[in-house]
Amino acid sequence: MEVIRVxxxxxxxxxxxxxxxxxxxxxxTPEGIIKNIRYAxxxxxxxxxxxEIPYASHLFFTQPGILDxxxxxxxxxxxxxxxxxxxxxxxxxxxxxxxxxxxxxxIGIEMAExxxxxxxxxxxxxxxxxxxxxxxxxxxxxxxxxxxxxxSEPADKSEEIMTIYIAGPYTPQGDLHDAARIAxxxxxxxxxxxxxxxxxxxxxxxxxxxxxxxxQMRDDEALPKEAWYKFDENWESKxxxxxxxxxSQGADAELARAKEHGFRIFYSVDxxxxxxxxxxxxxxxx
Length: 286
Known about the structure:
alpha/beta, four-stranded parallel β-sheet, 8 strands, 48% helix, disordered N terminus
């Protein structure tokens, strides 16, 4: 592994300033907390894309085994420690508003104003979940994060088995030179997601499996793209939840229909409740 020392770092890296990210963490449900964590990650990436050096104490201190956000004493300890760091760095406080402004965020804003530090407000936009899902699901360590989240996710007894439609890209876009390889990769991603859904105790529908039907069709049996869309739309109507893996014409249409019909929408596998833990707990009790 190549090591780049500070003295050897390129002078034109372009990083402009330290910024302290304010975004929500606490929520009423485990799914809400997971969504807030994903939002904070998206905020960190947004800052990095602006050549800023971000600090998000609520992503660091709240990891399992460090500080417990449900303990008022530990929560305040994390807030104080985080604000001490950004005060030392003279960081600009950047408030991301898409998920609202929590009490913890308000404390951070008030501390910045009291210390005379600049406060800026930003939004990632209404499609932040879809856009971040593309980066997240393509990350080389996504499998590690999924295993970590499953090992620490609390069971929710109110959850029931869901039939989850897997929505994601299939047909390659742009240059078709690599079309077969890209299509195969997209099918593998969808199947992998479906397996993860099954491991969590739910029932997946993977429209990408029609890829193998398509491969067996003779030329005189070929169907237009619209026919495949209609086929998938029929199966989607039998589901009650949707896992969105990334943007494409078909996946975006499926996402829109799911929202229209009140489906539960998930943008990563780690948002989906793990029912197997609930079952295991029930067996141990009985």
